[in-house]
Amino acid sequence: MSANSSSTAAALALIADDMRAMDAVIARRLQSEVPLVAQVSQYIIAAGGKRLRPALVLLMCGALDYRGAQRFNLAAVVEFIHTATLLHDDVVDESTLRRGRSTANEIFGNPASVLVGDFLYSRAFQMMVEVGDMRIMQTLAEATNVIAEGEVLQLMNMHDAGLTEAGYLRVIRSKTAKLFEASARLAALLAQSSPAVEQHCAEYGQALGTAFQVIDDVLDYDGEVLEMGKNLGDDLREGKVTLPLIIAMQRGTQAERATIRQAIETGGTEQMAQVINIVQKTGALRATRDAAATEALRALNALQNLPQNPYSHALEQLASQLLARRS
To answer: Span of the secretion signal (predicted)?
Structure first.
């Protein structure tokens, strides 16, 4: 286990009992009279992962001293929404590997993955309605809609070698950071915190989610398949233009820019070794890590305005470990 993994594990150990309580909610709410629904859902949820989004709900609830049972319900809602996006993402991206295992679409087929993703979305909305709080419903409804817009925006940007850093950030703030932001905001709403505290929670979540995605994009050019649980070069193959490529094109020679542009436009991984070499040679990976560090520091600054206790210290650990994440 790497130092980063140990740091994350230490932060999440604080909510181990809460996560088990959430798992019980998930198991209960995944039940369906249609066997394939439960089968596909269980497969992807059992794949594990860090489950940072529901953990963020639970840690932030702890930081704000909210102990009500609704925290388990909303953590499960967030996990369902995230799982639905994964099912749909893997179909759109034609992915075959996630978290070191075959994707659901690879095993069960695209139709089952799309339809079970729809089930998880609708089940999440059933559960959030049960909370009976209009602000909570508004937060989750808006987040789900923004995520969908981010997915479409990313689709429009595929194979576009002219994508700017601002365009890239717009996609990840919608597609990834929005659910982190909503997760942290939900805790403030459950705790009936002041508008100022709610805003600090939301800013922490958005900054953490942005840093997380930026580092994830670094790992596509600076990681190992066994560590990452996905295929090296997947982003390039899918035509995704991420920050390492954008910076490498800004800094590279005319010939290097042409190589990266061709790889983006064709999705050809036969140039992968060349592209990785250019990305590393131009210092694009370090610059991208610096961009992630700036976001992680923004998250840490937002925490300074929240109560200081073991839960907020765990949230601090999560942001700090993103400064050196390797897998």
So the answer is: none
